[in-house]
Amino acid sequence: MKAATGFIYYISVTGVTGTRGPELDETRKNVGTIRTLTKLPVVVGFGVSTPEQARQIGSMADGVVVGSAFVKLIGEKIGDAGMIDAVEVYAASLKAALR
Questions:
Q1: How far apart are CA 46 and CA 52, in angstroms?
Q2: Which of 11, 12, 36, 84 is most buried, by CB atoms within 10 Å?
Q3: From the first residue on, what is the mean pLDDT of each consecutive set of 10 residues in the chain (99 residues)?
Q4: Residue 9 lies in a domain
Q5: Within 10 A of 27 (CB to CB), how many other CB atoms are there?
């Protein structure tokens, strides 16, 4: 980690993203360990898909990455006139949870 710059991206789920949520106790422990090794911000991603998960992860990390949940939502709404609105509503729910 001594050569790292920018931020540390902690992957909270091993395996395929979007198949299960992060284990919060393990994530908290590992983020704490990372913080003892670097002064860089710690961002957590993989498996984060609900506003509540984002809120919980956001309370222990400097940033939260949500990716597969957006891809899934867009896939479900593709061709639907309300797709952009659905993505906006979902993004707003994540943002609200992080405040």
A1: 15
A2: 12
A3: 87 69 89 96 94 96 95 95 97 97
A4: no
A5: 24
Q: For the whole model, what pTM was predicted?
A: 0.84
Q: Is residue 61 part of a domain?
A: yes
Please state, in angstroms and rounded to a whole number, the distance separating the CA atoms of residues 28 and 12.
10
Domain that includes residue 88, residue range: 20-98
Instruction: Tell me if 11 is assigned to some domain.
Output: no
- The span from the first CA to the last CA of the chain, in angstroms, equals 29
Instruction: Report d(CA 36, CA 46) in Å as an integer.
Output: 22
13 in a structural domain: no
Phi-psi region of 22 (alpha: psi -120 to 50; beta: other; left: phi over 0): beta
